Amino acid sequence: MKIYINGKFYDKENAKVSVFDHGLLYGDGVFEGIRSYSRRVFKLSEHIDRLLESAQSIMLKIPLTKEQLIKAVVQTLKINKLENAYIRLVVSRGVGDLGLDPRKCTQGPTIIVIADKIALYPEKLYREGLAIVTVPTVRNLPEALNPQIKSLNYLNNILAKIEAANAGCDEAIMLDSLGYVAECTGDNIFVVKNGHLYTPPQCMGTLRGITRDSILEIARRDKIPAHEHVITRHEVYISDECFLTGTAAEVIPVVKVDGRVIGQGKPGKLTLNLIKKFKELTVKNGVKY
Ligand SMILES: *Cc1c(COP(=O)(O)O)cnc(C)c1O
Description:
This protein has helices at about 20-25, 45-55, 65-80, 125-130, 155-165, 210-220, 235, 270-285; strands at about 1-5, 10, 30-35, 40, 85-90, 110-115, 130-135, 170-175, 180-185, 190-195, 195-200, 225-230, 240-245, 250-255, 260, 285-289. By secondary structure, the protein is α+β, with helices and mostly antiparallel strands. The chain folds into 2 domains: about 1-115, 2-Layer Sandwich (D-amino Acid Aminotransferase, Chain A, domain 1), CATH 3.30.470; about 125-280, D-amino Acid Aminotransferase, subunit A, domain 2 (D-amino Acid Aminotransferase, Chain A, domain 2). It contains 8 helices and 16 strands. The strands form 2 sheets. Strands 7, 8, 9, 10, 11, 12, 13, 14 and 15 form a 9-stranded mixed sheet that branches. It has a 7-stranded antiparallel sheet with strand order 2-1-6-5-3-4-16. Helix content is about 30%, strand content about 25%. Helix 6 links the parallel strand 11 and strand 12 (about 225-230).
């Protein structure tokens, strides 16, 4: 495996960054998780745009243009000869001193591209659906650390993941500060009621996921009524179907929430249909390499 760090490729054993990197010391940085399917990088332009927006928001100046970042991702896939891959693009504040002042990171950001395989959940769960639970840890408040920033500081989500695991579940529903459903630890959430799709709006505690947007894009195209609307836990409990979306997880059904069986207790018809349509979208689109 070859890993890209600041314009050079290193073997896995030698792909190292400094212990003074503020990505490690403070989680100071931004990232993207991207997938390629059949030698096409899915929604690469959208991912790079979101990375640049996250960076802009935290005043992290990335010394590469959008085109150069795209090239770095494509080169990493080519050199590793991967047809289907999960790509992790990381930009940290770079090497500084032990203080948190980012102005001390004078060498510039550390840019890393790792391309590998990833299966977030076993195949069985895609067929049978997940059991998830609402956890006590509230999603970061937008006025404190806006969830639109895909930052390296993931502790908010990790705490929720731990709480889900403690409850014997695979995923966590995180609420926003008003108590509405925000999202899961690394995935967005959708429910289906009477043939309509609902997903929380991107304000408050919900990251605007690119997989989420792809599902909304499919819904628009195929005239499935879809709404970005606040959702309560009650509305999740009484939904006909529920599923999660994210680049790593893709689209995965949910069949149990906080002990309540959702719908018939198995992946719903519209969910399965959307999984199929999403798969079709991924192999037909994207930047070729
Ligand atoms: C990345 C991420 C998602 C999913 O976004 P995609 O663009 O679909 O991968 C959802 N929630 C959080 C907190 C994330 O970090």
